[in-house]
Amino acid sequence: MKGFFISTLVACTIALSVPAQAGDVTGKVSFDGTAPKATRLRMDADKVCSRAHKDAVLGEDVVVNANGTLSNVIVYVKDGLKVKKFPAPKGKVKFDQLGCVYTPHVLGVQTGQEVEIVNSDPTLHNVHSLSKDNPSFNVAQPKKGMTLSKTFEKGEIFKVKCEVHTWMGAYIGVFEHPFFAVTGDDGSFKLEKLPPGDYTLEAWHEKYGTQTMKVKVDKAGAATADFTFKGK
Fold first, then answer.
1. Cα–Cα distances in Å, from 186 out to 29, 83, 92, 182, 190?
2. How far apart are CA 110 and CA 125, in angstroms?
């Protein structure tokens, strides 16, 4: 009997130490319609900004890729996670001001993750967050190379702007878990290592709003989810 209990204890310990199966959700965000003409950003008010670019700088509020997909869409798990608390990543995420443009235009971070805000321009910028669930801030960075470290403790998507250069605007999406991604120049995304289960995904775009979709990650560990935004 004693051996039975020991064997059972060992078996339970091994079972608990084996990681749960997990799978990736992959997909793309397509654009339906005629791509709107990009707005040229007029930087004449600051010679440092205008001299930083040889070619015209276009706004990034709607970026339709060559393959008919959409950039700068945040796709994330909105509902369905059984675990509610995830450790914050240790690495920093850089949010830059370069050529009087925010880079990246849309940034995704996890709660508790350090965001390093950098001024890479030899001119004055101020970083003004329009966050509501997290404390807002408005900080001047008058010199090239200045940095500012921020962390956010609540999930939300908010705008960041610069009053000195009114064309500068970007968005930061804060999430309480690591299952989010921002589409790039091919419109694709990947949410990695999701445990098996039923989830609601949301795709967010600054101009076209949000869409949701149900997706099931089974024990085979793979699922796909494609979104389409229609031009207005």
1. 9, 31, 25, 11, 12
2. 25
Question: Residue 220's pLDDT is what?
Answer: 73
Instruction: Catalogue all structural domains in the chain, each as residue range(s) with its CATH number.
Output: 21-230 (2.60.40.420)
Q: Are 125 and 119 in contact (CB under 8 A)?
A: yes
Go through the chain and tell me how many residues it has.
232
51: CB partners within 8 A, 6+ apart: none
> Is residue 191 within 8 Å of residue 28, measured between CB atoms?
no
Q: What percent of the chain has pLDDT over 90?
A: 86
- Do you find a cis peptide bond into 178, omega within 30 degrees of 0? no
- Which contacts qualify for 209-215: CB closer than 8 Å, 24 or more apart? 212/78, 215/25
Which helix (H) or strand (E) segment is 217 a member of? Answer: strand 209-217
| pLDDT given for residue 222 in this prediction | 85
The pTM of this model reads 0.89
pLDDT at 1: 44
∠ at Cα 32 (216, 74), nearest 5°?
A: 50
Please name which of 189, 192, 195 lies closest in space to residue 178, comparing C-alpha atoms.
192
Stretches in the chain below the pLDDT threshold 50? 1-19
Please answer whether residues 102 and 115 qualify as being in contact, where contact means their C-beta atoms are separated by less than 8 angstroms: no
